[in-house]
């Protein structure tokens, strides 16, 4: 089977525009798979596009566990009509990172990494975007349209308990090796918590899991759920259900359980309690959010928000219901937006 790189060599490359770097027809905020897909589709209709991200290219995927394998098949991760070639039925994180790098390179996307958008002012067809880089430098962009595809993985759901800000507390899990022979607490009951608990245990950590529900979540992947349940049943991973962590100390945690309050020895905590979109940023742009689920108000056919000229794409369209939109369906948002952009730019001419 040909690799993604070999396939790309057979395809024509896109030529970059020659306008100044700070000017664009469309500025995409977020360089995840959805943001890249939006940029590609806008570029295909002849628009000058700039993509900015406060992290690296596909930053959320980069922060996934190092040895992660996707649940989905490679064709459901494809963007820009570029095949995702892999020898495996399900691609790995490493393969996905390489794939999206190659796609961005093929389309010669103008991506400004480590550039954090702070303000968006102006109006439709004349937006002024201000951002800062890693060194504190200020960058100004002018653009006609804005697409917000900022995802949700950057903002963990906080527990608001004493000690949550200690250095030993992590809201992201990457790999198990540093926690060998350590007392590790995993908070959560979904896929990320189950995977972390199993990997940590298999690499020599003493693992305790705490979840506020009576059992592991029903949506834990079908091949992982019996594994974690058997480890708990055998006492290899200690689990406290219907329980909550109420305090974290330098060398302990306090857990409130149905049978009383426990003080456990502890070296590290993984609070894998989920994530949420940056609702404050959306509101700073003037985008209205629904009362219950914080869904941005937008036209479902075009994804243009209540602010003319500002579009939303990807998981943020679902508001707090982050389990509704993934790469598999969010990648198509670029086509919807590009269709509307093509019509609007044609009308302007």
Q: Outline of this structure?
A:
With 349 residues, the protein is α/β, with parallel strands linked by helices. The chain has helices spanning 4-9, 33-44, 59-62, 93-106, 191-202, 225-233, 279-284, 327-330, 333-348; strands spanning 23-29, 49-52, 111-112, 115-123, 126-133, 138-148, 169-170, 183-187, 206-211, 238-241, 244-248, 252-257, 260-265, 268-271, 310-312.
Describe it.
The protein is of the alpha/beta class. The protein folds into two domains: 4-155 and 275-348, 3-Layer(bba) Sandwich (FAD/NAD(P)-binding domain); 169-271, 3-Layer(bba) Sandwich (FAD/NAD(P)-binding domain), CATH 3.50.50. The chain is 24% helix and 23% strand. It is built from nine helices and 15 strands. It has helices spanning 4-9, 33-44, 59-62, 93-106, 191-202, 225-233, 279-284, 327-330, 333-348; strands at 23-29, 49-52, 111-112, 115-123, 126-133, 138-148, 169-170, 183-187, 206-211, 238-241, 244-248, 252-257, 260-265, 268-271, 310-312. The longest helix has 16 residues, at 333-348. The radius of gyration is 22 Å and the shape is globular. It starts with a helix and ends with a helix.
Q: Please, what is the CATH homologous superfamily of the largest domain?
A: FAD/NAD(P)-binding domain
Helix and strand sequence: HEHEHHEEEEEEHEHEEEEEHEHH
What is the C-alpha radius of gyration, as a whole number of Å? Answer: 22 Å
Query: What percentage of residues falls in helices of 4 or more residues?
Result: 10-25%
| Termini gap | 46 Å
Domain count, please report it.
2
**Second-tier CATH architecture of the largest domain:** 3-Layer(bba) Sandwich
Number of beta-strand segments: 15
So what's the oligomer here?
single chain
Query: Which CATH class of the largest domain is shown?
Result: Alpha Beta
